[in-house]
Fold:
Amino acid sequence: MTTVPPPAAELSADDARRIALRAQGFLGAPDRKAGVRGVLRHLGQVQLDTISVLARSHELIPYARLGAVGRRTVEDAYWTEAHAFEYWSHAACILPVEEWPHFAFRRRSYRDRPHWNHRLPDGAYQAVIGQLRAEGPQTATQLGGAKNKGEWWDWSESKIAVERALMYGEVVCTERRGWKRVYDLAERAVPDHLLHDDLDDAECVRRLVRQAGEALGVGTRADIADYHRLKGEQFDAAVEAAGLVPVTVAGWAKPAWADPAALAAEPRGRHRTTLLSPFDSLIWERARTERIFGFTHRLEAYVPKQKRVHGYFAMPLLAGGKLVGRVDPARDGRTLVARQVSVASPKAIAPMAVALREAAEWVGCDSVRIERAEDRSLAAALTAELG
Structure:
């Protein structure tokens, strides 16, 4: 681990929480002029996931910051005019196209090691590249089918080939169509001045450490490295050149670093009241969420139903800059159903009602029904608040 120089600032736990909220776009007036693209550029990535409850996570993330922006507007902002691409960052993520050069180190590393233990017959890789060159953007189905007849991981030769080309950077995912990746050649999809901007590994990592620090505001080594799934030693080698400054945060057991700009002005402004996707970068890392908000959250979609505590896709409630409840939502026709809801205190009932009404309107529902709450009094009070 890197040797940490003396801290540039001492922060209270409350300072760190508000810095993190501002950095993530939840404190202060949202930049509505920049819109969804501004959110993506500021965060540096938006995580994708197959689960869709109210909406898919990549839709929920700009909604949480901007409010009820149209869902078609969200998709168009990501995928039109060569604005973004999909690649492996924190996980499968939508990334601003300007970040293409900074993932060259990862593309090189993928080329230097085998993947998935899948073998390709001679010519299969070149055949997929040739088909894309001749026919334009294609899904895996159009390229010859995504799967053989086995289990989900039994990919077809064309699917293995195009995914390998994606990892290598010869192919780019330019959009999702019916949740299927649409592949195109990088030489067509990525602007030329970015495609050929070959940065060495050190410069790539330096940029990603800097960007993660800016997006988080303040974080530990693990927080910042995990944002783009960097290794700890990569962070150590890059943090000084990245310009992040060491700080101490009251109650944090480990050293921290901050974006200097985040320390230059006190974080003030209006707090957003909203429901959060579990894949939102404000809360996706459990240890950081517990450290900053004193709130333990776990995505239970992959937990057996009988062992779930808060529900399949429980969404934390952010209000007043704190996490004060959670709800497991669903849709029943034009009704948003709160399948299970809990709050930290009675003061959170009104914000929960606000968040539920706004979410319902956003997804085209005209009513909200409380199905189950942690006690009858909460269900009654929340129902009354919803009117």
